[in-house]
Structures are given as C-alpha cells and as structure tokens.
Specification:
Oligomer: single chain
Shape: globular
Number of domains: 2
Distance between the termini: 39 Å
CATH topology of the largest domain: Jelly Rolls
Helix content: 25-40%
CATH superfamily of the largest domain: Jelly Rolls
Structural class: alpha+beta
Strand order of the largest sheet: 1-2-9-4-7-10
CATH class of the largest domain: Mainly Beta
Mean pLDDT: 85
Largest sheet: 6 strands, antiparallel
Number of strands: 10
Low-confidence stretches: 3-11, 310-334
Strand content: 15-25%
C-alpha cells in the first residue's frame, strides 16, 4: 500500500470531508468496526504523511492500541522520558497514563484501538504488564497476527479497504466472550460519570470488594482503578477546556476537583506540563484527530469511548461538552 497511491482517505460515509481536513501531504481517516466488534475495538484510525519533513505528533493517554506502519521510515515513540524505537512494523502500544509523542518519517500508520473487553478476549496476560510501554505485536499476540496484518495492509490500494480487512482478521480472534465482561461494562460506564474518582466508591457502586476491582482494573484496563478514574476525569476536563478555546476557563472542569491547583497537578501527571503549554506544543494533528474521531465515533478520545453504547458519545455533562463534533478544535492559545 503505497502512500502516494492510496485513495479514498478524505471521508467516511455520511461524514463531511471538512472534518478530515489536514495540511498538504497529510491525511487521516477514522472508521468504526463492524457491529459484532464494537465492544472490543474502539476505532480504526489511519494517519498518513508524505515524509518530506519528519513529524512529531502528540497522542492523549489511552487504552491499548495495535499499530501497523506501511511504507514508513523509522518510527519512534516517547512516553515521558522513555524512548521506544525504532519500532517494529507491527507494534502494541500498552495502556498509557501519560501523553506521548510519535516521531514519524513518512508513510502510513494504521491503528486499532483495543477496549478492555477486547483485551479480555484477545490477551492472556495482564494489561498492566504493558503500562506506558510499546512492544512488538508479535511478542504479545504471536507472529501469526503480526504477519497477517502487515501482509494484508501491504496488498491494499485504498484506505476504504482497511476496515473490511481488519474486521475479517479480528472477528475470529474476538468471538469468545470473557466471564468478566459484565463487570468491565459497568466499570467502563462508571468511568464516564462526573465525580467518580475513588476506587472505594467505585467498588461500592459495582457491589464488589475493592481488591476485586483492583484485580479487574489491572488485568483488563492496565492500571489501578484510582489511576484509571483520575485519567478519565482529567481527560473529560481537559477536552472540555479545548472545546472552549480558552485553556484557562476552569469553569468547565469536573466538579470533583477541589480547586485549580488540584486540576493542574493532574495535568502534570497526565500531560507532563500545563494544559496551556501542552496545547502550544501539540501540532494540528492532535486537534484535527480529536474533531475527526468525535464526528465518526462519538467520543473525542480513545480513553473516553463508551463501550456500553458503541458509536455514541458518553452522557455525562462534561462528556457532552467534550465529545460534540459540531465546532472545530480551537487554535492553541498564545
């Protein structure tokens, strides 16, 4: 699949082409998986760059993602002070609690977002083993899946063919339900609600012991319930700030924050800097991908995807503000 040969990357069905507008030489596309995979796969994403100038693209903290590159130069990923790469053609990005950047040198990157239910069905190991790590896909899921993905994508000539290929490859691997799925669904919904930030409160609402919630969270989500709930609260608040176009409008942040310094401490944890500085450093790619993802999938970021109602935005007040695709992403404030 040659970068310059690929067609059909400007829009998906019923989505205005303007949602996917990118600078010259860059392209993106989002697709929802087949309905049978909707609880397991949060999105298919395609990012392409012509390679004339190396690019640094920022990503939000997120659940696991399978990444395959096609006709690409060396790709490296940095998660805070740890650098991974050059990466294998097929890699697995583990669950992250920190923003990370990818240094690309042209080519196409195809991403498959994996939900906690998807992880439960697909993986034998603890998701927490890969917290804030990037590893070869074959080291976790075997060379068979890695080879089928790379060979299949190499044979394509149109972005629109990526979704059917991935649906066909993943369907048999994600067919068997896991016994923990009812609890995973309930905990996933709980994470999208304003004000739920304590693991003890979450365990009470789920009617399970705290230690059972901790085991479930680390096994399928990749981190402790407290960190997971804090990440969700921060991302809801941060994306709401982005929608206002004013990174200092703290009136939109989650009501469970005691004060602004409390929110800014979370910003340091999850972004490594203040929201204003992060938005100054993040290039157009991050802003464009947030708008495009919200338009196609309902949630502006992978970590806030509603697995209980795939394709629909979460229903909490902050999530409604965050996920509305009706207005463009703001330009970073000076």
């Amino acid at each position: 699949m040659k970068t310059e040969q690929v067609r059909g990357g400007t829009h998906t069905s019923n989505i205005p082409a303007s949602v996917f507008a990118m600078p010259p030489g860059m392209r993106m596309r989002y697709d929802a998986p087949a309905p049978a995979l909707a609880e397991c796969v949060t999105a298919y994403a395609v990012y392409a760059h012509d390679g004339s100038i190396p690019a640094v693209n920022w990503f939000m903290p997120a659940p696991p993602m399978i990444s395959v590159v096609v006709d690409a130069g060396p790709l490296c990923v940095s998660i805070r002070n740890t650098r991974f790469g050059p990466l294998s053609r097929a890699s697995l990005y583990g669950p992250t609690s920190r923003a990370f950047c990818a240094e690309t040198n042209g080519g196409i990157m195809v991403g498959v977002g994996v939900s906690a239910i998807g992880w439960a069905r697909l993986a034998r190991r603890m998701a927490s083993d890969l917290h804030n790590r990037v590893v070869p896909l074959a080291s976790v899921f075997g060379a068979g899946l890695s080879n089928r993905l790379t060979d299949g994508l190499d044979a394509l000539h149109d972005d629109a063919d990526i979704k059917p290929l991935l649906d066909d490859l993943l369907a048999p691997l994600l067919a068997r339900p896991h016994p923990d799925e009812p609890l995973i669904r309930r905990f996933s919904v709980l994470m999208l609600q304003d004000g739920v930030v304590e693991s003890g409160d979450a365990a009470t609402r789920l009617d399970i012991p705290t230690h059972a919630l901790r085991r479930l969270s680390q096994r399928h989500f990749g981190m402790t319930p407290k960190l997971l709930l804090r990440r969700a609260r921060f991302l809801r608040s941060f994306l709401a700030l982005m929608r206002t176009g004013e990174p200092a409008d703290y009136s939109v942040i989650d009501g469970s924050y005691f004060d602004v310094p409390h929110f800014l401490r979370d910003a340091e944890t999850f972004l490594g800097t203040t929201p204003r500085r992060f938005l100054q450093n993040a290039n157009r790619f991050l802003h464009a991908s947030i708008v495009a993802r919200a338009a196609v999938l309902g949630a502006a970021t992978h970590a806030l995807h509603d697995v209980a109602s795939p394709g629909r935005a979460p229903t909490s007040p902050a999530a409604k503000r965050t996920n509305s695709p009706s207005s463009p992403a703001p330009t970073p404030a000076p």
